[in-house]
User: Which sequence fits this backbone?
């Protein structure tokens, strides 16, 4: 598989805090790469730098072989449409219906006509299992349902790459499965995905590659079977033992 997204020597500092210390990462087209690790290891910052929500202090980010790190204005807006992102919090408009939350971005950002945007939104909400909730408001939905609306909204931009930042961390345990099922279906459809997650079963069962980060560096990477059953690094083994055998 050819590289869709490549990160080279990415650096990020907040004052004296060195959050990313030369991260290298390749995401092939159609692959699912999961990033695991303890809190504060730089995982979420990595995603925010990839989507240019945070500005890296060094290194490069390449999409289809083209650097996107220095882009500004309309060129940057286009990149953000090509790289969708779903966050821990749902960030839905509470005064808009489920349908309008997915329609609005298409109209404002992509200049899509109302009828076309509604048709696309309806289809996406069907795909995430929310056909019966089109006219509801976010406050009347469960957390898992709201997160699936957020995924549909991101997909409405027709991204080439999807970034997921701990999208189940704010959910009650019984609501996690439906969201992960949507992500599994996206993987089956061939969506290129970079996923920061604490859901070890998803990382193990769905990923093409798993990266373990700690202290702003990639400590270990490999196929899920190897990383989860025979990690090469002691730090990885300690983390997995704590998570899998609480």
Assistant:
């Amino acid at each position: 598989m050819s590289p869709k997204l490549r990160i080279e020597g990415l650096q990020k500092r907040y004052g004296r805090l060195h959050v990313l210390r030369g991260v290298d990462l390749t995401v092939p087209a159609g692959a699912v790469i999961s990033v695991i690790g303890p809190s504060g290891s730089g995982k979420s910052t990595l995603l925010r730098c990839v989507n240019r929500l945070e500005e890296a202090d060094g290194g490069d980010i390449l999409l289809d072989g083209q650097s996107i790190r220095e882009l500004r204005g309309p060129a940057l807006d286009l990149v953000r449409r090509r790289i969708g992102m779903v966050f821990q919090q749902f960030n839905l408009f509470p005064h808009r219906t489920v349908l309008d939350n997915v329609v609005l971005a298409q109209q404002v950002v992509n200049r899509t006509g109302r009828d076309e945007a509604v048709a696309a939104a309806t289809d996406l909400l069907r795909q995430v299992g929310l056909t019966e909730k089109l006219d509801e408001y976010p406050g009347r939905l469960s957390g898992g349902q709201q997160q699936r609306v957020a995924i549909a909204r991101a997909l409405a931009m027709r991204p080439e790459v999807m970034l997921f930042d701990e999208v189940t961390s704010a959910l009650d345990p019984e609501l996690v499965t439906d969201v992960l099922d949507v992500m599994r279906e996206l993987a089956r459809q061939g969506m290129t995905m970079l996923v920061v997650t604490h859901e070890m079963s998803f990382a193990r069962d769905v990923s093409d590659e798993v990266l373990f980060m700690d202290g702003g560096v990639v400590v270990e990477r490999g196929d899920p079977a190897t990383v989860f059953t025979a990690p090469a690094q002691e730090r990885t083994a300690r983390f997995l033992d704590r998570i899998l055998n609480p």
